[in-house]
Amino acid sequence: MREFLAEYGQLLVEGTLATLAMTFISTAITYVFGVPLGVLVTVTAPGSLKPHRGLNAVLGWIVNIGRSIPFIILLVALIPVTRFIVGTSLGTAGAIVPLVVAATPFVARMVESSLAELGPGVIEAALSYGASTWQVIWKVMLRESLPSIARGASITLITLFGYSAMAGAIGAGGLGDIAIRYGYYRYQDDVMIATIVILIVLVQLIQTSGDLLARALDKRDR
Amino acid sequence: MIELRNLSKTYSTRGVEHTALEDVSLTIEDGDIFGIIGISGAGKSTLVRCINLLEKPTSGSVVIDGVDVTSFEGRQLSDLRATIGMIFQDFNLFAQRTVLENVTFPLEIRGDDRVDRERRGMELLDLVGLSAKAKQYPSQLSGGQQQRVSIARALANHPRVILCDEATSALDSLTTNSVLKLLRQINREMGVTMVVITHEIGVVEKICNRVAVIDGSRIVEQGSAAEVLEDPSADVTRRLLGRVRWDA
Ligand SMILES: Nc1ncnc2c1ncn2[C@@H]1O[C@H](COP(=O)(O)OP(=O)(O)OP(=O)(O)O)[C@@H](O)[C@H]1O
Ligand SMILES: [Mg+2]
After folding, report:
1. Domain locations in chain A as residue ranges
2. Cα-to-centroid distance, B98 and ligand 2 (Å)
3. pLDDT in the model for residue A222
4. Of B78, B86, B139, Cβ closest to residue A221
5. How close does chain B come to A149, measured CA to CA in Å?
6. Are A151 and A214 in contact (CB under 8 A)?
7. Which of A205, A204, A172, A179 is nearest to A193 (CA)?
8. For residue B29, is it within any domain?
9. Which residues contact B158 (CB under 8 A, 6 or more apart)?
10. Closest ligand 1 atom, CA of B199?
11. Residue B209: inside a domain
12. C-alpha torsion A172→A173→A175→A179, nearest 10
């Protein structure tokens, strides 16, 4: 065990940090795009705040197309785009572009379903007090849905965690890369198992803290 | 004064048209507690939602203090709505905000600073007898308490009118009475006009001075509450009053 740690400890720590960086940075960027997209899809829906049939249909299409492309294909297909945006398709930076592109439609849908839980009553109440569209979005829709959106965020983190391991296969580094290089090409089961254990522990940690956060935020049922 | 002139509202869902209001004309004077009563589906909610234009009438007009507001939009509409409070059957409180934050919501969107709006909010919670609950959340209150909070919220902007859409329908009879008393007290002491939508004749008997009866999208009878209750002319009013001959 000590020998194993001496030999691979540093590698695994670095891999873990790279994976965490990739996951958290791309999740953060994803929400910058995904939340407005989810809000836009919601408020342009028929009967909603600002119904707009055309825009709603187009956005729905984009989201569905984005969600129907398997990540591994997106990863390869986006290489030129990634090079153009961040200058390289390798490493943590290179992984962020495909991760964000893959996760944005996913987050948009999750935000949309969080907002849908809200029901029309409170929005109507806010409008009846003279709230503007923006105020309804910020102060009612997003604020009231925050616990649910936070719950979605831990799901997104875990999904991107898995995706980032796949990105490792095409040179993104991190735990996925280690698992493939050592476990798959060199048949070093011990390294492979170590990466799996780390992944499991991290996923549990994210899920648990996400649940705790959502519960702390949610003021209903107490 | 609120005047509804020949108001009609037709919904069309996937090509199917449904008339919820037909040629409704009403005048609600300042200081009235104006009851609008009818059975389920008669068009009561649609009618009251037309007053603050949550629903756009298909034709006809809404005139408030002599100003035709039917075509108001944007800023102008928001400002108008801020002068009209509204309370709902299922309260529609914000679950993630404290009681005090709920009450001060109308002031928050108007841009008042926190100190001012909290002072006003506490004043209102005092009025409805819930200042001890200021820091709690709606889910920690009973239905009657939640409706009191929503009444305080409706009062925050010093409205001249409060629209009540089935405000007591989710409450038991004792709680209903205490909420109705509160509404009447607000009407008497602050001179706030009340538009009270209900399907329960008891609500009209207890607090309304005027009443309109709506049935099948139309106003079938209106007048002073005393007169209408004493001598109803429309069939539906008699049914709502329970004056039916069961064997007939
Ligand atoms: N957004 C809508 N789209 C289509 N039809 C609607 C809509 N809102 C109401 N209606 C229809 O208009 C009619 C009147 O509805 P309204 O809600 O005004 O009735 P109500 O008198 O308030 O009934 P209740 O006592 O059940 O609340 C109903 O037949 C209803 O189905
Ligand atoms: Mg109704």
Report:
1. 2-217
2. 27
3. 58
4. B139
5. 13
6. yes
7. A179
8. yes
9. none
10. 25
11. yes
12. 90
* 3-state per-residue secondary structure call for B164-185: EECCCCCCCHHHHHHHHHHHHH
Look up the CATH number of the domain holding residue B73: 3.40.50.300
Give phi and psi for B219, each to the nearest 5: -80, 120
Q: Which residues of B touch A (CB under 8 A)?
A: 52, 54, 77-82, 84-86, 88, 90, 92-98, 105-106, 108-110, 137, 139-140, 150, 153, 156-157, 163
Q: What is the pLDDT of residue A169?
A: 73
What string of DSSP letters covers B57-83? -SEEEEEETTEE-TT--HHHHHHHHHT
| Residue B64 placed within a domain | yes
Tell the CATH superfamily of the A2-217 domain: MetI-like (1.10.3720.10)
Question: Is B138 inside any structural domain?
Answer: no
Give how far the C-alpha of residue B170 lies from the chain's centroid of Cα atoms, to the nearest Å.
Answer: 14
Give yes or no for residue A187 having a pLDDT over 60.
yes
Structural domains in chain B (count)? 1
The domain of B69 spans 1-83+190-248
Q: pTM value?
A: 0.91
| Both tokens assigned to A186 | 């060199």
Residues A72-89 have pLDDT tens digits of 888 888 889 889 988 888
Give the pLDDT of chain B (248 residues) as one tens digit per residue.
999 999 999 998 888 999 999 999 999 999 999 999 999 999 999 999 999 999 999 999 999 999 999 999 999 999 999 999 999 999 999 999 999 999 999 999 999 999 999 999 999 999 999 999 999 999 999 999 999 999 999 999 999 999 999 999 999 999 999 999 999 999 999 999 999 999 999 999 999 999 999 999 999 999 999 998 888 888 888 888 887 666 65
Dihedral sign of CA atoms B227, B229, B231, B236 in order: positive
Contact indicator for B96, A219 with CB cutoff of 8 Å: yes
